[in-house]
Amino acid sequence: MPRRAPEDTEKKDFLRQLINEKKEKHTRKWEMNERKKMDEMIRQEIERNSAALEARVMTRIGRQYLVSRDEARREELRSPVVRTLASAYKGKDYGDYSDKGLKEIEDEIAMLYELREKKRKGKMTMDGSQRGFQRPLFRSDKGSLDDLPASGETSKQGEGRGRTKVAAGSGTEGVLTFVLAQRKLLMVKNKDQLKVICGHQGVQYTTKAPTIEKIIEVRTKLAYEGLVFVPATPGSRLEEEHTPLK
After folding, report:
1. Fewer CB within 10 Å, N- or C-terminus of the chain?
2. How much helix, strand and coil, in percent to the nearest 5, is found in the chain?
3. Would you list the DSSP string of 52-70?
4. Per-residue DSSP letter, 99
5. Which residues does the annotated region (Disordered) include (predicted)?
6. How buried is residue 209: exposed, middle or buried, by Cβ count under 10 Å (0-12/13-18/19+)?
7. CA–CA separation, 23 and 126 (whole Å)
8. 168: which strand partners?
9. What tens digit of pLDDT does each residue of 198-245 get?
10. CA 60 – CA 83 distance, rounded (Å)
11. Which three-class secondary structure state does DSSP give residue 139?
């Protein structure tokens, strides 16, 4: 049997190597294409999931918004004071109460009670058995207590002004009107002025709001001749009650 020439063996090895390289190249190309296809499928799946997730998130946010809006409406319906004022005086524009201060709201409440008192008294027929309209005036040896100077005014300057009279009607509504008027007068006083009033009324000064309540209680008992009635100042539990006056 003839022996193969070395050239033939080298040629066959070379051809075999070329074939293997082509196979490897084809395999790498196929793997690359498959990887690209897989990446594209993953990207499309992520996009679909992202769109679905965004839709679910927006749906949940919208649902929470609707729930919050319904709760806010129910809270508005639970507030009888605001609803009563809005229905009784819907012909007038009182503006947005959220932009008003506490003193402005209290002034409006006092005005509403005064209007109610005037309307009620207009329908009543006054006779001898009914108690007349009182206008108590608190005086002392040094002048009117209600006429003490406001902040920025000396006591001597305040003596030249006229005395202030506060109307006190009969019944519970009259007492309430009197209490509101007294509170409005006392809230503008400073610490020193309130201490002077406390000395004349026999009240010990602590902080502004509790002291004003005590003064109003003493004055109300005096104005209504010792009736068994302890007025509660409307809106007395304010944030400034327990804060000492500067």
Report:
1. N
2. 65, 0, 35
3. HHHHHHHHHHHHHHHHHHH
4. G
5. 121-167
6. buried
7. 120
8. 134
9. 988 888 888 888 898 889 888 888 877 645 444 444 444 433 444 444
10. 32
11. strand
> Tens of pLDDT along 81-110?
444 444 544 444 444 444 555 566 667 677
Please identify which residue in the block is written with the tokens 């605001």.
82
Q: Identify any residues that bridge with 139 across adjacent strands, giving them in sequence order.
A: 144
For residues 201 and 218, what is the distance between their CA atoms, to the nearest angstrom?
A: 7
Burial of 143 (0-12, 13-18, 19+ CB in 10 A): middle
- Dig out the tokens for 29 from the structure: 């190309």
Tokens of 187: 């809230």
102: three-class secondary structure by DSSP: helix
34-83 pLDDT, tens digit each: 989 888 888 888 888 777 777 777 777 777 777 777 788 887 787 654 44
**Do the beta carbons of residue 155 and residue 149 sit within 8 Å?**
yes
- For residue 35, the one-letter residue type is R
Place of tokens 């929470």: 64
